[in-house]
Amino acid sequence: MLIAVGIHLLLLTFEVLVCDRVQRGSHFWLLVFMPLFFVSPVSVAACVWGFRHDRSLELEILCSVNILQFIFIALRLDKIISWPWLVRTCNLFL
């Protein structure tokens, strides 16, 4: 329960930072995506705990699997990498 609350608070923080970035445009996308970078390891720990205790965890599995997506989207939005979006999202289908 505590892990789920922490994950939801980090997701809420991400949403607030996205709204702030879109409205003001004052900070990098990498900083906006930081809560998602913290959600992923916590989600992996929640998945391990959930599988050990026979609990179903849908949100945690999605957050733990998509860490590369979060990193590549942030890097692409900051124009650090200039790969086409198709190449960048290729790992989504693999």
TrEMBL record:
The keyword Transmembrane helix applies. The chain crosses the membrane at residues 29-52. InterPro entries: TM_Fragile-X-F-assoc. Keywords: Membrane, Transmembrane, Transmembrane helix. This is Transmembrane protein 185. The lineage of its organism: Eukaryota, Metazoa, Chordata, Craniata, Vertebrata.
